[in-house]
Amino acid sequence: MNHSNFQIPELVAGIRNIATLNACKDYVEAVYFSLDSLSLRARAKDITKKSLPEFVQLIHENDLKAYLTINSVIYPQDMEELNNVMDIAKSSEVDAVICWDPAAIIKALDNDLKVHISTQANVSNIESVKFYHSLGAERVVLARELSLDNINDIRKQTTIELEVFVHGAMCQSISGRCYLSSHLLGKSANCGECTQPCRWKWSLVSDDGTVIDLNGNYLLSAKDLCMIEHLSELVDIGIDAFKIEGRLRDSRYISKVASSYSRALSYLNYDDDYSINLSLLKDELSSVYNRGFSTGYYFGNSSKHNFMIEHDMNASTTKKKAIGIVTNYYNKQGAALIHLQQGSISLGDVMVIEGKTTFLEQTVNSIVIDGVFVEHAAKSNEVGIKVDQKVRKNDIVFKLEQNQKSFN
């Protein structure tokens, strides 16, 4: 079906620093991120109140919208910090604040900031949507537990912008409102400190103390959401924005997922081989970090097929192996000097170079040792390699390898 008469949704990617911004800036229309406080991704500490103005300016220079996430529970002791963050968000000219706690909503609106209601609010019906719209919200990120029929019903009854998740980790609890980590380790998921107990290998113990053999299965680990093959259904409904989860994932993940969904959306307008292209794109998504894929609740209630019980945290078809660091970059030659501290490299290998502001993935086309071109360089060598873009001293160099544990 040709969707040229439909508005293509805004593609929104989660980022945590300049490197992940650079990884997705060519594929998305907006990015969302958090500070080192008041977020469910408290481990993403690269962006601070001090650095926020410059970071937002960089986002805007790339013609992207900047959405600041403030989605943790706000306790009495957090109110002063909330006020400070909102003041800085206003002066930094963020395009919207993603929040759900009424205190955060009120403070954002008091600062004349646009409000997007976070999925943490678990908005699951039209009356809830109307409620937040009446408060002044511009957009609602719907609950991840909704089906396509549920979403279509809501869309028909409101003009507010609607956003849905299309890719990324799924939580065991309602819209991520989980207490398991807090109960077990005193680390609250609702304040950004989730230890992810649902990804652990658990045991079943009967009333008489007998331990039941689970053959190494992971009972509570949900597969990642992947809607790459079903975007057309969401476009037909009239969704305004598609969200990619992954503020703690690496730059390669952000780049691969953002580019795949960007291409999938572009295919909607003209490609007769849409299903074939989507299959190829799903293969690409499988090459980066994932826990297996499912369509979540979009096509009805979740089932046992939405759990990745057979595998641990990463089911990607490829994995990154750290092999060294960049020790120098030569601008005129477009080459990096790399110390192979942990592994070897050969012509034809795919390498990834990452740093605080760097992301590069490319095939190795030249290797030089002491002025001599070679086909292979062993561990401990210092080599010169042509690179497609600027890299920086102390950037980490990886080599891509096949992951023998992968499945999908």
UniProtKB/TrEMBL annotation:
One of its GO terms (biological process) is proteolysis. The keyword Hydrolase applies. Keywords: Hydrolase, Protease. InterPro entries: Peptidase_U32, RNA/ubiquinone_mod_enzymes. It holds the Pfam family Peptidase_U32. Coiled coil: none annotated. One of its GO terms (molecular function) is peptidase activity. The keyword Hydrolase applies. Belongs to the peptidase U32 family. This is U32 family peptidase. It comes from Methanosalsum natronophilum. The lineage of its organism: Archaea, Methanobacteriati, Methanobacteriota, Stenosarchaea group, Methanomicrobia.
